[in-house]
Amino acid sequence: MSEKKTLEIIDGTLRSVSENFQKFIDVLETAKNELIVLEKDKEELNREKELLEGEKDQLEGATKMLEGDKKQLELEKTNLESEKKKLEEATNQLEKEKKERDQKIGSLSEEQHRLLKEYASLKVELKKFAKIAEESQDADLNFERIQALLSIFRVLVEKIWQGQPHYKVLKVLHGEKAVMTREELKNTTGIGGAYILRAIQELANVDLVEHDIDTGTVTLRQRLYSKKALDKK
Known about the structure:
Blueprint: H1 3-135, H2 143-160, H3 165-173, E1 179-181, H4 182-189, H5 193-205, E2 209-212, E3 217-220, H6 227-232
Antiparallel strand pairs: 1-3, 2-3
């Protein structure tokens, strides 16, 4: 083989090797770039994984809190239902007591109206007797009837009226002050507001007192006995 031919073969081999080496370099460069991209993707995936794990932990914590809140709400619901039941029972009891009290007050009111009428009738009779006694000491008086009426009057006062609001209101107004407020009467007699108001209204209905609703004052209209007579008692 000639020297020229040998050089050509060597040049061809070198060119082939050079081309192949360049291709190998290109392949390595491409692989390197792809590896860099993969590393970046890996880092990004790791960051996303950490974020997802953090969110997962937060969700688990929130879930636990919600479960705790749910249990607390269920407990509060149970307590509220229990309280509601108690309130309903208490309301029913109060309504029952109110109904019984209203019935009692109603019956007392009717009885007191009857007693007021009887008292007014007795007062008229007593005035008649007093007038007869003043006009003539020689008048033919039915003392048995007087005694009977006075006995009834005494029973009304001692056995019935003494413990009633009406009696206490009239007794107070026959004292130093013939004009008092409802609050003063309530404090003086110790009678509750609703009962004192009812007694005042019923006394006003039979003209024994005058009740000014706007000012709340109560004025004695008919004096049944003098302050002096009360002091003696």
